[in-house]
Amino acid sequence: MKTSLQDTAVLPPHAKNSPKRAAVASMAGGTLEYYDNYIYALAAALVFGKIFFPEAGGVATLAALATFAVSYVARPLGAVLLGHFGDRIGRKKVLVFILILMGTSTFLVGCLPGYAQIGVWAPTLLITLRILQGISVGGETAAATVLTIEVSPEGRRGFFTSWAPNGIVAGFVLATLVFVPISALPEAQLLSWGWRVPFFLSAFVTIAGFVIRAKLTEPEAFVEAQAEHALVKVPVVEVFRSHWGAIIRVTFCSLAFAIDTVIKVFALSFATSVYDIPRSTMLWVLIVSHICALVTQPLLASLSDRVGRKPVFIAGNLGCAVMIFAYFAAIQSGNVPLLFLTGFLSVSFAYAAINATYPSFFAEMFNLKVRQTGMALGLQIGLIAAGFAPTIYTALTAGNPTDWLPVAIISAVISLLAVAGALTAKETSRIPLDQLGSPISNPAQSTPVRSGEQS
């Protein structure tokens, strides 16, 4: 099974974007984009309750986790806005804008005074910046995936697009590594200035990401459609008209990502606050399992190029439905080796199978002319469940904080719903790029689609 990024054959010599360049840019940009997103998630789980909200204890923690969830509500808005411009003016332009918006918002979070200094304005400003982050993230994965898939060779689309979620994983690893020494600071220093450092560091990663993405060019297929005036005028309207089934399908499949936030946000807060497992131990469990996922995800994506997207995606969800029980049982036991083992199996294999295949699986459901809007919208609507999962689960366990069983059961049910969504999809791994997605035949908005195109 070949997994080298050096395999970039089949593009014409004059093409400026090779699959390798697009994949590297997707990973690098995703790393920087999701570094910003995850430092917020970690701060919300560990310190924001004490800084931005007046009440101590579970209520403040619940409020802090709710600010994390707010961005997920804003993501569909970002999907529509950024998807519209991505499908109208270009994938690359949107990718650069996304990075600048996220970097600026994240840096400003680090500048905010706390509730003790400005009262209710502190959480108000925090929520405003979190909404801007949500708009940015709402377009990130779809834009990066669509640009990559449109320059990738047939039979390798799964592999090359898997580097976008690999960037997301790398962003989480980077954010967590930054937080390990920060979380070890004495409480007074952590709450006064320590928590701000990761947010200020976002300025450097934003600049690096801008340099990388500025060198990209638009995919040839998109440029040709633009030159022929074949793009639709209002992608969000057209995608609901011709691809409504695909949007519903992607929304159900995207419920799978609730497992990710349960492991990274709720379980982190649960383990450190209820079972007094050291913050550093839980952070290292997450770091090790996600570093391993950087290796397993491209392998699983290559497997999906061989056997299909559906088998790998479904197997990952079934694995998550089982492993979530094992992971919480390991937390309850306090057994550190068992924590590392269950974290490894949950993240590096079960969830990695989902993460590796969803970019190609989702993008291949849509026609080029609405691909970014359709993928982004379906993905972000489904991700609302992921955003609110930590808040809902914290509320569910408020009466009995040690009872994790309801959380595990609901997580497993959500995974099964994602399986149901995937079962309704067609296998697209071997369909040529120009035949993907439902036909768009409105003569007022686009040129006719080849008769061989299919949904």
Task: Explain what the structure shows.
- It contains 20 helices and no strands.
- The protein has helices spanning 19-46, 48-51, 58-88, 91-111, 115-118, 121-149, 157-161, 163-183, 187-192, 197-200, 202-214, 220-227, 235-242, 244-254, 258-273, 279-307, 309-333, 336-363, 371-396, 405-423.
- Helix 1 (19-46) packs parallel to helix 8 (163-183), helix 4 packs antiparallel against helix 6 (121-149) and helix 8 runs antiparallel to helix 16.
- The longest helix has 31 residues, at 58-88.
- The two termini are 29 Å apart.
- 56% of the residues are buried.
Layout of secondary structure:
Elements: H1 19-46, H2 48-51, H3 58-88, H4 91-111, H5 115-118, H6 121-149, H7 157-161, H8 163-183, H9 187-192, H10 197-200, H11 202-214, H12 220-227, H13 235-242, H14 244-254, H15 258-273, H16 279-307, H17 309-333, H18 336-363, H19 371-396, H20 405-423
Helix pairs in contact: 1-3, 1-4, 1-6, 1-8, 1-11, 1-15, 3-4, 3-6, 3-19, 4-6, 4-11, 6-19, 8-16, 14-19, 14-20, 15-16, 15-17, 15-19, 16-17, 16-18, 17-18, 17-20
